[in-house]
Amino acid sequence: MAEKVLVLFSGGFDSTAMVKKLLTETDYQLDVLRFQCGKNRLLERTERHAAAKIVDYFRTGPFRAFNYAETAIATNIDMYKCRIQAASRCNEQRAKGIKYNYVAIGRTKNDLDFFICTCEDVCECAKPGKQFADVDEKFLEMLHPELINGTSLIYPVENMDKAEIIEYLSPDLLNYPVTCRNPRIVTRSSIEPCTSCYSCKDVQHALESNSNLLEHRELARHVPR
């Protein structure tokens, strides 16, 4: 029997690439889960639309079957709350007789660079990945005792940066993922990226630093509708 994976999906580039990688390069049984965005209604609307397009793309394309679900949470999601919600989901499914071998998270090389400490003196938080180790430890703390030795976190795209992820996704899929964590309404019929959040800057840097991505420069100004 194939190992079972809970895939945390947002509708962004990283988690979309992660789903593609798991579908094409493993034989895992996938349960793809999206957390609704709590208080940020515009981001939730944007992510919901993007997720629907991406899931439909994978379900109608030459990919194997997978399960997809969404769950509402009261607050906006971050990497800390993401681990807590993932552990809660694992515990809920365990009560139903379903156990996950892995929980897949879309952490990338860019994320590891972003969370490097900026302290002037050498300190504990300057160690690469310390912040991630802290939040990953919280996931284990929240797991039911029966799951601690049987459920692990995996990071299918952690060796890829944003430019590599954009290149990895096929051109017909690139217009679907969310590129901004704080989209803004310009007019009743127009939504634009904020251009200043970490996600916007990450995409912009990838497009500007890789000559192979020149034809995709419009992604920095794109919000899926």
Tell me the layout of helices and strands.
Blueprint: E1 4-8, H1 13-25, E2 29-35, H2 41-60, E3 67-71, H3 79-95, E4 102-104, H4 109-114, H5 130-142, E5 152-154, H6 162-168, E6 184-187, E7 190-192, H7 198-209
Parallel strand pairs: 1-2, 1-4, 2-3, 4-5
Antiparallel strand pairs: 6-7
Helix pairs in contact: 3-5, 6-7
What does this structure look like?
It is a single chain. The protein is α/β, with parallel strands linked by helices and 225 residues long. It has a single domain (4-161), classed as HUPs (Rossmann fold, 3-Layer(aba) Sandwich). It contains 7 helices and 7 strands; from the N terminus they run βαβαβαβααβαββα. The strands form 2 sheets. It has a 5-stranded parallel beta sheet with strand order 3-2-1-4-5, with helices on both faces. A two-stranded antiparallel sheet has the order 6-7. Mean pLDDT is 82; it is low at 116-128.
Tell me, briefly, the overall form: globular
- Please give the alpha-carbon distance between the first and last residues: 39 Å
**Helix-strand pattern, N to C?**
EHEHEHEHHEHEEH
Number of domains: 1
Percent of residues in β-strands: 5-15%
Class derived from helix and strand content: alpha/beta
Integer average pLDDT: 82
Q: What's the CATH architecture name?
A: 3-Layer(aba) Sandwich
